[in-house]
Specification:
Layout lengths: L1 H21 L7 H11 L3 H14 L4 H18 L2 H19 L6 H20 L3 H21 L6 H11 L8 H7 L5 H12 L8 H18 L4 H8 L10 H13 L3 H9 L12 H13 L4 H11 L6 H14 L3 H13 L6 H12 L5 H11 L3 H8 L10 H17 L3 H15 L6 H15 L3 H13 L8 H14 L3
Helix pairs in contact: 2-3, 2-4, 3-4, 4-5, 4-6, 6-7, 7-8, 8-10, 8-11, 10-11, 11-12, 11-13, 12-13, 13-14, 14-15, 15-16, 16-17, 17-18, 17-19, 18-19, 20-21, 20-22, 21-22, 22-23, 22-24, 23-24, 24-25, 24-26, 25-26
C-alpha cells in the first residue's frame, strides 16, 4: 500500500509538472508590446509596472521574463552604478535561473536565454568580472547552437549568433582565453550574412520592430569597428532611428554611429534633440557624447556637458576620458592651470579598463599642454571637418614643436586628413615617416600609421602589401602602450578578410 501511495504521489508530481510546462507560452500581448516600446524610451519604471501586471494575468508567458530581464539590464547598462548593480544582482540571477529551468520546447526559449546571458556577460565585462562574463557568453552560445540545430529557420537567432560570430572573428590576445573557453572561432563573413538575413527578412511586426532596431545597431557597429565600413554603418542605422527626438535609445544609437562615421554635425543635431532625462531613466553618457560633439565643433559650452557627466554619472568608465576632454576645453581657452587640474583628476578618478580611459590616464599622467592649433586641428579632424583641420596643420612647422608627441601628431594627423580626402600619394609618405620616427615610442601613431597603410593597400587590391602592414601594426611596435587591443583587433579582422 505504501508503494502505491508513493507511486501515486510521484506520478501526480510528474503529471503536474508536465501540465505546468505545457502551459508556458511566448505571447507578445498588448501589455508586452507597450512595455517593449517603453524600454526603448528608457521609461523603465513604467515598463516594469506593465510587466508586473502582465505577469499576474499571464504567469506562464515567457515574454514577460524576457522583457523583465531587459529592464534590469538597461537599469545597469545606462547607469553603470555599482549600487544599482548590487541591488538587482540577486533578482537578475533568479530571473535567468527560473527562465533556464522552464520546460518549453520552443525556439523562443533558447533565444531568450541567449539574450539574457549576453546581457549579463556584457555587464560583467563593464564591471571587470571577466571570468563570469566569459561563462555567460559560453552559455549564450550553447543555447544558440542548440537552436540552430533544432530550429534552423528561426531568424531572430541571427541577431545574437551573428553578433558573437563577428565578435569572435578577431579576438584581442587578452581575450583569447575566452575564445578557448567557448571553443569557437568566429568568421566575419558568416556573422554579417547571419545578421543580414534577419534584417532583410519580412519579419516586421510586433516584437520584430524593436529587435530589428537592435540588430541594425549591432550590424552598424560591426561594420565600423571591425569591417572598416562607416558608410554602410550609417546607411544601416539611419532608417531605423528616425524617431530619435522622442525615443532615447534611437537617439543614442543614431548619435553613436554618426560619431563613428565622421558625421559630427549630425551627431550634434541628434543629441541636441535628445529627450530630457526627466522623461525616464537618466542616461548621462549621452551628455558625454554631446560634450564631445560640441568640443569637435569647438563650441564654448562643451565643458558644461562633460561637467554634467562627471557630477551625475555614478559609474567608472569614461570618467578619465571626460576629465581629459575638460582639460582640452580649458586648453582651447588658454587656461593651462585649470587644464592641469583636470588632468590630475583624470589620473585619480574612474578606472582604466576601456581603451578611451587607458589613453586618457596616460595623457593625464603626462600632463603635457598641447599647442593650441595642433589640438584644434585634432578635434576638427575627429569631427571630420577636414578642410579646416588641414588649413591649421599646414600653418604649423614641425621644427617649432618641442615635444616628440606633437611632431608625430602633426604628421600623422596630416596623413589622416589627406587619406580621408583620398589624396593617397600625399598621405602614404607621411604615414611612412611617422612609422620610421615613431616606431620606438610609446605613442600609438606608428602602429596606427601601419594600420592605415594596410587599409590603403587593401582598397587598392595590393594584398601582399596590405598583409605586410596589417601584420606590422599588430606585431612590430612592442613599446606602444596606446590603443593596443583596438589596433590588434582591427589588424586581425583585416588579415582575416584578406584570407590570412
Amino acid at each position: 500500500m505504501r508503494y502505491r501511495v508513493l507511486f501515486f504521489c510521484v506520478f501526480f508530481v510528474l503529471v503536474s509538472n508536465a501540465v505546468a510546462a505545457s502551459k508556458v507560452v511566448f505571447n507578445m500581448t498588448d501589455n508586452c508590446l507597450k512595455a517593449q516600446a517603453l524600454l526603448y524610451e528608457l521609461k523603465l519604471d513604467d515598463a516594469d509596472a506593465l510587466l508586473v501586471k502582465e505577469a499576474t494575468a499571464n504567469s506562464d508567458n515567457i515574454a514577460v521574463k524576457w522583457l523583465s530581464e531587459s529592464v534590469i539590464f538597461l537599469r545597469i547598462f545606462t547607469s553603470e552604478d555599482q549600487a544599482i548593480y548590487t541591488k538587482y544582482t540577486k533578482q537578475w540571477h533568479k530571473l535567468i535561473e527560473d527562465t533556464e529551468g522552464l520546460t518549453f520546447n520552443n525556439a523562443w526559449h533558447r533565444f531568450i536565454l541567449s539574450d539574457m546571458f549576453i546581457h549579463r556577460g556584457l555587464i560583467r565585462l563593464k564591471f571587470n568580472e571577466t571570468f563570469t562574463a566569459g561563462s555567460d557568453i559560453k552559455s549564450a552560445f550553447k543555447y544558440l547552437k542548440e537552436n540552430k540545430k533544432m530550429f534552423p529557420s528561426f531568424l531572430p537567432d541571427n541577431k545574437n549568433y551573428g553578433f558573437l560570430t563577428c565578435a569572435f572573428s578577431s579576438v584581442p590576445s587578452k581575450y583569447q582565453w575566452l575564445a578557448k573557453l567557448i571553443g569557437f572561432e568566429g568568421d566575419m563573413t558568416t556573422g554579417l550574412t547571419e545578421i543580414e538575413a534577419y534584417l532583410k527578412s519580412d519579419l516586421t511586426v510586433k516584437e520584430h520592430v524593436w529587435m530589428k532596431l537592435e540588430t541594425a545597431f549591432i550590424y552598424a557597429m560591426v561594420q565600423h569597428h571591425l569591417n572598416k565600413n562607416s558608410e554602410i554603418a550609417w546607411k544601416t542605422i539611419e532608417p531605423y532611428t528616425r524617431s530619435y527626438k522622442t525615443i532615447v535609445l534611437e537617439n543614442y544609437m543614431r548619435a553613436t554611429v554618426a560619431n563613428y562615421s565622421g558625421k559630427n554635425d549630425e551627431m550634434l543635431a541628434v543629441l541636441n534633440a535628445k529627450p530630457s532625462h526627466f522623461s525616464g531613466t537618466p542616461f548621462y553618457y549621452m551628455d558625454y557624447l554631446l560634450g564631445l560633439a560640441k568640443l569637435r565643433h569647438q563650441d564654448s559650452d562643451a565643458d558644461v556637458y562633460f561637467k554634467i557627466f562627471t557630477v551625475k554619472y555614478k559609474g567608472k568608465n569614461y570618467l578619465k576620458s571626460a576629465y581629459r576632454y575638460l582639460s582640452w576645453a580649458c586648453q582651447l581657452k588658454n587656461d593651462a592651470a585649470t587644464a592641469k587640474t583636470y588632468y590630475s583628476m583624470g589620473v585619480k578618478m574612474g578606472t582604466a579598463i576601456i581603451e578611451e580611459d587607458k589613453q586618457a590616464e596616460r595623457e593625464s599622467a603626462e600632463a603635457i599642454i598641447w599647442p593650441v592649433n595642433i589640438l584644434k586641428a585634432r578635434l576638427l579632424y575627429d569631427g571630420h571637418y577636414l578642410d579646416k583641420s588641414l588649413a591649421l596643420l599646414n600653418n604649423i612647422k614641425e621644427s617649432e614643436l618641442a615635444h616628440k608627441k606633437f611632431k608625430l601628431e602633426l604628421n600623422y594627423r596630416k596623413a589622416r586628413v589627406l587619406h580621408d580626402d583620398n589624396k593617397l600619394t600625399e598621405a602614404i609618405p607621411l604615414y611612412t615617416k611617422v612609422i620610421e620616427s615613431g616606431k620606438s615610442e610609446s605613442y600609438y601613431y606608428a602602429a596606427y600609421s601601419a594600420l592605415q597603410l594596410g587599409y590603403i593597400y587593401e582598397k587598392q587590391a595590393k594584398k601582399v602589401l596590405a598583409k605586410q602592414y596589417f601584420t606590422m601594426a599588430k606585431n612590430s611596435f612592442p613599446n606602444n602602450k596606446e590603443y593596443v587591443s583596438s589596433i590588434e583587433q582591427k589588424a586581425k579582422a583585416a588579415l582575416k578578410r584578406l584570407g590570412n
